[in-house]
Amino acid sequence: MKIDPNSSSDLSAQIAKSIRDAIISGDLIVEDRLPSEQEMAEQFDVSRPTIREALKRLAAQSLIRTQRGAFGGAFVRRLSYEDARKQHITTSTLLLSMNDISFDTACQARYAMERSCVGLVVENRNETHLEAMKHELNVQQQPDLSDEGFCASDIGFHRALVDGAGNPVLSYQMAGAIEAMQPLMNMITFTDRSRAEIVTIHTALLAAAAERDAEQLESQLTRLENYTLKLGRSVFERRREKRAEKNDNNARTMFSSILRPDESAP
Amino acid sequence: MKIDPNSSSDLSAQIAKSIRDAIISGDLIVEDRLPSEQEMAEQFDVSRPTIREALKRLAAQSLIRTQRGAFGGAFVRRLSYEDARKQHITTSTLLLSMNDISFDTACQARYAMERSCVGLVVENRNETHLEAMKHELNVQQQPDLSDEGFCASDIGFHRALVDGAGNPVLSYQMAGAIEAMQPLMNMITFTDRSRAEIVTIHTALLAAAAERDAEQLESQLTRLENYTLKLGRSVFERRREKRAEKNDNNARTMFSSILRPDESAP
DNA sequence: GCCTTTTTAAATGCCAGACCTTTAAATGCC
DNA sequence: GGCATTTAAAGGTCTGGCATTTAAAAAGGC
């Protein structure tokens, strides 16, 4: 294996890439053991810390797992649906929060995608999915539920709905669109009135899923999209303004509150 | 900041998580500079290599970028659409390749999602999108095009199509569904006959997009789904069989090497 | 001869300290 | 004032080492 020490990028990045490529291409398959750090250091002609940095990069992508002890080492890891979900959600969340994406755009993409599940849901939904939706619907009607709790249950409801399509790949893809909006939704204050409206729509969605009524499912999702849009727009406007302010006084050290709790007195 | 040295997970993983959380929560925003590695080592009470491993984890997720020299350091990075796309495609590709997901399931999810763009495409597609589709269509008709080249152009065609929806978030989400199938599609041998059929469908898709004909767009996508399914099934069956064989061989190899290392030569 | 305990070797996890390279600000010269 | 030089800060890498974990091998007891 050849690594170019004069390349512009880090050695550890190059090494990580070369191992990643081997995994993607199938040269390394699930549960294969990589050579020990010492051996790889010799093969790539770099030091052990450099190899370790490369391995940490791969670990961050859930591509490998390491095991200590004799006959331990780094092993190619099977990327589970749950791992993939989490990564997808994290990436999507950050994409939304860092790029001045309008609430409208995110919302439009989300509901377009969610509607794409309708056909499969009416075909494949079973009692388990309906029960899960019903359960979340009950949670959403608790009067003392916090906004965050309401929002989390909302996510749970829609997750149950798309799971009803019976296609795990589709569920995984949907997670990025639906759950990544949670931080945005959490900025919304759900009044009693808006909660009631959402619960009404959710009730209609549940009924439509139970009756395998695709048209109704689709139109209620569109109704929910429009209502969400309405709720979100005012919040989003405020958010834009705040961000503009923030950019003015960005001299403040964000990290001090997190990493240097002792430096309060100058 | 407190890091538990007795926790089950690595110190570098804990540190990476604590910084990642600060980014996700908004305590650290784009272009904020993290303290130097030396300073963080002191604050977290760990050594510099450990901090570096944590930073490499974050770099692997495109959350930070580092810059050498005076006043350099690690900076919170704006996750671009392209970075997010790449990560999403990598994750999706690995999910598909590592989990014995049937071609049918992947295909079903992909086309369900792609159909969800139809409404927005007929509304928002412009000449640029149509031109891009036309260009790929020409490429696909080159007689000396390799299967990989055909496949890549196919991806390009569909990318142009979903870009026609005019929603970058949707385009990003679609990439995971469409491009992640490229390795699977690359296993297919595209005969002249099958290329002709696909080109016919693509031509119909282009025409439908040009004419803003949603129904036609949707039905041609379904036609393409069915045809792709047909092409893929034979390949997929062979693939399953090969994997089954491999598993047998692996089992036998491990069995003999671990339990009966001396019985290799009869 | 079989089971339990102890030892041991191979890994990763972590650290200290050093040197090199890059970079931009500070300095000094003209 | 403008340009070249110096300098200090920061990341990139290496050497070498110690600690910890773990499973296999060896030793011991019944």
Characteristics:
homodimer; 266 residues; mainly alpha; Arc Repressor Mutant, subunit A; Four Helix Bundle (Hemerythrin (Met), subunit A); two-stranded antiparallel ribbon; 2 strands; disordered C terminus
Short structural description:
By secondary structure, the first copy, chain A, is mainly alpha-helical.
If you had to describe this structure to a student in words, what would you say it looks like?
The structure is a homodimer of 266-residue chains. With 266 residues, chain A is mainly α. Chain A folds into two domains: 11-76, Arc Repressor Mutant, subunit A (Orthogonal Bundle); 82-239, GntR ligand-binding domain-like (Four Helix Bundle (Hemerythrin (Met), subunit A), Up-down Bundle). Chain A has 13 helices and two strands; from the N terminus they run αααββαααααααααα. The first copy, chain A, has helices at 11-25, 37-44, 48-60, 81-98, 103-115, 118-124, 127-140, 147-163, 168-178, 182-186, 192-210, 214-248, 256-259, and strands at residues 64-67, 73-76. A two-stranded antiparallel sheet of chain A has the order 1-2. In chain A, a hairpin with a 5-residue loop joins strand 1 and strand 2. The radius of gyration of chain A is 24 Å and the shape is elongated. The N and C termini of chain A lie far apart (52 Å). Residues 249-266 of chain A have low confidence and may be disordered. At the A-B interface, helix 1, helix 3, helix 4, helix 5 and helix 9 of A face helix 1, helix 2, helix 3, helix 4 and helix 5 of B.
